[in-house]
Fold this sequence. Notes:
By secondary structure, the chain is α/β, with parallel strands linked by helices. Helix content is 20%, strand content 29%. It contains 6 helices and 9 strands. The strands form 2 sheets. Strands 2-1-5-7-9 form a 5-stranded mixed beta sheet, with no helix packed on it. It has a 4-stranded mixed beta sheet with strand order 3-4-6-8. The protein is globular and about 50 Å long. 36% of the residues are buried.
Amino acid sequence: MASNKAPALKVAASAGDIEQPYIDVARALPVDRFREDRVQALATFQAMGFPHRRVEEWKYTDLRLKMRKAYTLPSDAASSVTGAGGPFGDLDVHRIVIVNGRLVSDLPVQDGLEVVDALNGSTAWIDTHLFRLQSDKPKALAALSTAMMGSCVAIRIKDGVTLAQPIHIVSITTDSDSQHHAHVLIVAENNAQASIIQEYFGEGGKDYFTNVTVEMIAGAQATLRHYKTQNE
């Protein structure tokens, strides 16, 4: 899917030694159907660089300073992970599991709910909404996520549907000194209602970089309840 022309960036900085290893890794990734989006996103990240204290939203955290370590891409994602449900493991939910940035779980199936692995296919509603928020207001980390995403999960709650069970998105890291990136699109159409639980966890004592971008689009009179827990 080709993106529209990128708007002018409000924050401009030349990529330096800290950003360059990430740019080199992204450029070496295999070509897929999001090639044009990845190239454009990488150009955005290269222009903006990692956030630092001169960026208003990051004035208390110099992420660029923290990213001096060049994290590597993880090994192949495990086919299953013990305790993937975490503290919500006993809940009756629609669970989506991402390990080291890659989708490993079966996709939930229910009337009124559509979940698509967008790396392997697309539909009109995905093409309409995917990356839309990023094009409206570019963010460096979201751009890096798009450029290097190992999975792209698109979730649609159809018009007028109320989901009784929450959607539980679990992001797990198993590799030390690794980086992983994923993208999640959630679209609640008109009058739809759903709860989203995002959970992040990794094995204790390991150093890694997790970068998951979530876009949420709500139609008229739609309700999305979003909960996020971090156990890292």
